[in-house]
Amino acid sequence: MDTEVPWATFVPSAMLLAATPGANQSLAFRNGLRHGLSSAACASLGRFTAFALMVVAVAAGLGAVLAASEPAFAIINVVRRGLPGLDGGAEHPDRRAEAH
Fold first, then answer.
1. pTM above 0.85, yes or no
2. What is the rounded CA–CA span in Å between residue 64 and residue 69?
3. Half-sphere exposure of 34 (CA within 13 A, CB side)
4. Residues 39, 32: contact at Cβ < 8 Å?
5. How does 6-28 read in b/e, with b if 16+ C-beta sit within 10 Å?
6. Residue 1 CA neighbour count, 13 Å, CB half
7. Per-residue DSSP letters for the chain?
8. Which among 25, 76, 79, 80 is positioned nearest to 47, based on CA atoms?
9. How far apart are CA 80 and CA 87, in angstroms?
10. What confidence tens digit (pLDDT) does each residue in 31-88 have?
11. 24 closest CA partner among 46, 3, 1, 8
12. Res 4 pLDDT > 60
């Protein structure tokens, strides 16, 4: 198995892919319109940071560990559900207002 990663090609390609229009970019655009440039920039920085952490996790082999270990997957899932903002936004103030 070839484990060499061409980082000079992979990282810029991954960042370009992360910046392509989609739900994340729509969120930044919405934040910019509603709250100004600093809010949009802050949201973008957070998304790119999360994306970088995912790239590092994949490079470290976390996917293989989770595929091989059901308990590890369950632990990650429980931790993820306990972190604010990762529950699908059910408690987001805008969504509560829309429900009423």
1. no
2. 8
3. 10
4. yes
5. eeeeeeeebeeebeeeeebeeeb
6. 1
7. ------HHHHHHHHHHHHHSSSHHHHHHHHHHHHH-HHHHHHHHHHHHHHHHHHHHHHHTTHHHHHHH-HHHHHHHHHHHHHSTT-STTTT-HHHHHHH-
8. 25
9. 8
10. 889 999 888 888 888 888 888 888 888 877 877 887 888 888 888 788 877 766 555 4
11. 46
12. yes
Sign of CA dihedral 17, 21, 27, 30: positive
User: Which residue do the tokens 């810029």 mark?
Assistant: 12
Per-residue confidence (pLDDT) for residue 86, from 0 to 100: 52
Residue 81 tokens read as: 């559900």
Determine the residue type at 32.
G
The amino acid occupying position 85 is G
